[in-house]
């Protein structure tokens, strides 16, 4: 099974991926997570916005390598979980997913969580707005993409709902 998890920055994608990999491993499955952030191009190849590296652009991700790794590891693991801001951007990768989860949070929650995240130091307000707008433009699942299960990242995940959706028939 290949699972895609998408959502805006700080929505809980990695948390959901970790909960799922733990669930599968406890149930005797070999499971692995791939984070889209591990497939970014070298910084010199990533577009800039106002002299700041635009990590929020799909042009920052090596989708070809990301897809190759997913396809390779689906032969070695029972469950492959691929998560990232642009999880639903590339159609050839969308076709690989057996299940798709979109982690939704409000803009207010995004702003609060992003303000608390100090990994990159001070981020100007315009850039934080850019992150949100880039998600709306490139990361939000298109309406024609079938089989998306929306889960709330506002509080704890409703894992009963998530697990139940894993048993439902695949929608391409």
UniProtKB/TrEMBL annotation:
InterPro entries: P-loop_NTPase
Record's protein name: Phosphoribulokinase/uridine kinase domain-containing protein
Native source organism of the sequence: Emticicia aquatilis
Top-level taxonomy: Bacteria, Pseudomonadati, Bacteroidota, Cytophagia, Cytophagales
